[in-house]
Amino acid sequence: MRHKLKIAGWISIGAITGALTTVSLQTVARGSLAPLPLEELQQLASVFGMIKTDYVEPVDEKKLISNAISGMVSGLDPHSEYFDKKSFKEFREGTSGKFVGVGIEITQEDGLVKVVSPIEGTPAYRAGIKPNDLITKIDDTAVKGLSLSDAVKKMRGQPNTKVTLTIFRKDESRTFVVTITREEIQTQSVRGRVVEPGYAWIRLSQFQDRTVDDFARKVTEIYKQDPNLKGLVLDLRNDPGGLLDSAVAISAAFLPDNVTVVSTKGQLPESNFTYKAAPEFYQRRSGADPLKGLPAALKTVPLVVLVNEGTASASEIVSGALQDYKRATIMGSQTFGKGSVQTVRPLGPDTGLKLTTARYYTPSGRSIQAKGIVPDVLVDETEKGNLFAALRTREADLDHHLNSGQGPEVKDPAREKARDEARKELELEMLKPQAEQKVPELGSDKDFQLVQALNQLKGRPVMVSKTMTERKEEKKEN
To answer: Which residues does the UniProt record annotate as the domain PDZ (predicted)?
Structure first.
């Protein structure tokens, strides 16, 4: 039977079949009777009653209950979460790789929304929006001051509705308005190309429903273009993770058949499981093996995996498995350190609970929770160094993060000092002309880490970092 635990969010088949209508001494929990603390529940009921009768203005009961659940769950760890109707819909869109919007990858710059790239074939692409365009207004709302997530929400909506974007194109020094009709967008989580004869680059930006199929198509396309590849770079930088079965499949594409890819351990019996490099561990029901037909050379082609502090969760599973079997050289900087498993269970037709149910372990038994994968070769982001990596949030920076469960943790006293220095460097960087600030696009010929990965594959000298050292697991704050 195919196991259903997922990394970083998906819906398990264990739906709750009933709903509690009253608070009782016992409640059914995963098929067994679990006692409830009566005294504490009486306190909760008392607080609920006081708020209902004594608060300055009437409060919606459903909102009170929703807030109580959210508070109870959010205090556990950074990845457990209660989904109300709106957030549950957004979560499912994120893992499916589908959403209704205009079709652009964006980031933030100077308080504005910057276009990283329009997704090919989408309304934004057809409207002529280009990389580096700045969005200054969404309909009548000025973007300055909006969070990136709020800007995204304003651009998304219902199919066939319109949104008006005000664009500032820096290289043409002009502002113009474009009205775009929203439609369903399928995000592209796989990119790749032959970078030079004999060497290819494949980037995974997330592990979604379609990632494995898209990966298989891209690999096949690359091998048709160059059947005699001498080396391949798998780029997992800034990949936040996604679906566990997708991570197992990508690992299996490079590893020998039936070896262990990852194991999970938790309280529930089904949380203790070992995933192997075999179709039954990643193949979707009623679907064919997405890896069938891949070139046999993929199992042996020299491989470098690029990672950084933004490499998290499912992408750390792939990195850890390929590292443990010495199938690839891991290059870059130490990864995020999210080594926990979340199971998502519906609570009703449109609400759900994402709950941390296990830690995961690499094939050799390593927990990377709050530590991450340490690359075989530490390489800075640029030739000038790793100036701003300390500003990136890692698992160990998150409130209530889990420890690894493998011995005591050590606090790194240099962390905040490094972050302060990086902030000062960033402030100086922002004073430079725009053209000099620009960070090279991942996969471009100016991508320093990709150049070093190709050097590694060719047996040439690699410019290793002179400043980076292994980051020890940091102690959880109580």
So the answer is: 88-156
